[in-house]
Amino acid sequence: MKYLIQYLIASMVMFFSTFAAWYEGSAIRDNPWEWEYSAYFSKLLNGEMTSSADLSQLDHFIYAAKFSPIFPSFMILSLFYMLILNGYLLFKSEMKRMIYFICLCIFTFFIGVVVTDSPTIGGRYFAIIFTILGIIHLALALAIYLRLKKRKGHLENLA
C-alpha cells in the first residue's frame, strides 16, 4: 500500500508539472526568433518553420526547460523517483541486478556534465539537478552493494 501511495503522489506531481511546463513553454509561439534554437522537434518533423502552426507540442517542453525550468525540473524529479521505485520493486530480491539498474541511472550524472555550459537559466538548473541525481544514484548503488556484501559475509560466517 505504501508503494501505491508513493506512485500516486509521484504521478500527480508528474501530471501537474507536465501540464504547467507545457503551458509555460507555449510562449515559444510568440517568440519566432527562438524557433531556430528551441524548436528541435519541429525541425526534425517539418523541416523549415514558417509559422507557429509548424511548431511541435514537444518544443513547448524544451522552451520551458530553457527559460522556465521549475516545472520541467519537477517532471524530471518525479520521473526519476518513479524509475527508482520501479527498479526497487522489480529487483529488491536480486540485489546484484538492483546495483546494475542504479548504475544505469548514474547516466544522469553525465547528462548534468554535458549541459553544464548551457547559457540559459534552465540549462544551469538541469546541470545541477542531473549532477545531484547522479550522485544520489551512485550513493544508492554503493549502499546496496555494501549491504549485499555484508549480508553475504554474514551468511558465510553462519555456514
Automatic annotation (TrEMBL):
Annotated transmembrane regions: 7-23, 70-91, 98-116, 122-146
Matches recorded under InterPro entries: DUF4306 (IPR025440)
Recorded superkingdom: Bacteria
Claim: Cell membrane is one of the keywords in the record: no
Record keywords, A-Z: Membrane, Transmembrane, Transmembrane helix
Species assigned in the record: Metabacillus halosaccharovorans
Name of the protein in its database record: YjdJ family protein
